[in-house]
Amino acid sequence: MQDMCKTYNKVTELCFSKCISNMNGFRFTPDETSCVDHCGGKFISSNKVLMATFTEIQFKKQQQMLEEARSQQQAEANKAKMNP
User: Fold this and answer.
1) Is the model's pTM score more than 0.90?
2) Average pLDDT over residues 32-40
């Protein structure tokens, strides 16, 4: 959760410094609004891809660990059968 907050803050800072050029008004200009929307949208899109990739990798790792544990159990069971 803390990492997500740090990332959010970094993206907010990045988009603000990239998109907001005039601090004199109370409202964003249309160009600033468009820039912030685009910048934030890129973050959201890339975050979705990263999370999907992370989830897939974690699933594969868990499957591999499960298969290794099963293989080890089978090897131990076979060894126990040979040495009663």
Assistant:
1) no
2) 92
Cβ proximity of 29 and 22 under 8 Å? yes
Report the amino acid identity of residue 49.
V
Domain count for the chain = 1
Instruction: State yes or no: pLDDT of 45 exceeds 80.
Output: yes
Tokens of 59: 């699933």
- Domain with 10, as residue range(s), is 2-20+27-46+58-82
Please give the C-alpha separations between residue 66 and each of 18, 26, 62, 70, 76, in angstroms, as whole numbers.
47, 57, 6, 6, 15
Instruction: Evaluate whether residue 33 is within a structural domain.
Output: yes
- Across the range 19-34, mean pLDDT stands at 88
The verdict on residue 51 lying in a domain is no
